[in-house]
Amino acid sequence: MISALGLLRQRRFLPLFVTQFLGAFNDNLFKTAMVLFATYSIFADPHVESNFNALATGLSLIPFFLLSALSGQLADTNDKAKIIRIVKTAEIGIMLFGAGGLMAAKAGFTTFGIGMMLAAVLFLGVHSTFFGPIKYAILPQHLEEDEVLGGTGLVEAGTYLAILLGTVLAGWVSVEGAAILVLVVAGIGWLTGRQVPPAPRVGPKLAINYNPFTSSWRLISATMHIPRLFLAICAISFFWAIGAMLIVVFPPLVKNVLTADERVASLAIATFSVGVAIGSVVINTLLKGRISAKYAPASVVAMGACVFAFWIQARAFRSAPEGVLFTVSEFLTHPQSLLVMLTLAAIAITGGMFVVPLYAFLTTTVTKDQTARTVAANNVVNSGAMVIGSLLVIGLSLLGVGNTDMLLMVAVMCLISAWIAQKLHRACD
């Protein structure tokens, strides 16, 4: 058996890994640069900031909900490597449009620029919808059965490390620098995507259903009747509903509760990425390549406990003087900052340990000619859950609930995820 890290030396894995790494980096660099720019330079109200972030999150999810079924059908009936090349070509155009939006807003055309940026987020959602099923579904086609969990872990770890780099850079580079960088990275991703080995159709050719509503319903119906797939998808969906809430509330929370600048916000978000990457590697080591939900319930209970601990820390945090935001150096020397950052890392590590084996379930429960559609069905349900999470933030915000107290809702949702994960463990192990 080739070790998980040994896969990085294999042509059957490395180009895919690099392509998805660059895609995640670029997507996150643009979105984080946009959110931080809007939060710190355009808006000056915590509720408006949360609602803008929720809107951006919701727009990015609409394509997953409408087009995942189509993307799964296309991936299972065509060469997946060919689709990757098409998708990476489209990314260049999307980033060109999004970069134009950043520059327009920076130049003072705020409304027009925000419109372009939000449209680019929607288009990036389409991009991710068609690439998402492939990055997991292609693994059983290129890897041996005992390599799939390791490959899935590397893809997850690489994705979150890419998010880390994109997040950190978004907080440190200028708006102009971000606009240039997203175009450069899109070009490099186009080159690496062309090196992914062919992954032709395995089963019979499908009759494609282009109706987004009926195809989504049929896709979910054809997938969710399998008990352990149903439970795995439900558990993953709850996890991403939790993730959506954290993504939406976190930048305003850093600005208005931790009273820190955008570079601290990018550092804190990056801590999540490092933690999930560590969790992905840890769970692969614990399971020794075996696909199991053994540690999932305990992992997500621990995640909920860490979220609750972060809520306590946020309420007790000693803020900067009125009208002042902590810089990175000032925040890191704050007596409470170390515990805050360690708690954020613990939330992410336990989250990574929870979700990685569940993705491995998706790609190994069904035959290889159904993997893309299975991942696509998961994406449809996940996107719906994330939209609900985003709407929940907007609703709570309208009721006057602050970003800090929303963390309590997240902690409760972790317990529901643990219950679902326990049912999955009993059904499969």
Describe the secondary structure blueprint for this structure.
Layout: H1 14-42, H2 46-77, H3 80-106, H4 110-137, H5 139-142, H6 148-172, H7 175-193, H8 212-224, H9 227-256, H10 262-287, H11 296-316, H12 328-332, H13 337-364, H14 371-398, H15 403-428
General description of the model:
The structure is a single chain. The protein is mostly helical and 429 residues long. It has one domain: Up-down Bundle (Growth Hormone, Chain: A). 79% of the residues lie in helices and 0% in strands. It is built from 15 helices and no strands. It has helices at residues 14-42, 46-77, 80-106, 110-137, 139-142, 148-172, 175-193, 212-224, 227-256, 262-287, 296-316, 328-332, 337-364, 371-398, 403-428. The protein is globular and about 65 Å long.
Quick take:
This protein has helices at residues 14-42, 46-77, 80-106, 110-137, 139-142, 148-172, 175-193, 212-224, 227-256, 262-287, 296-316, 328-332, 337-364, 371-398, 403-428.
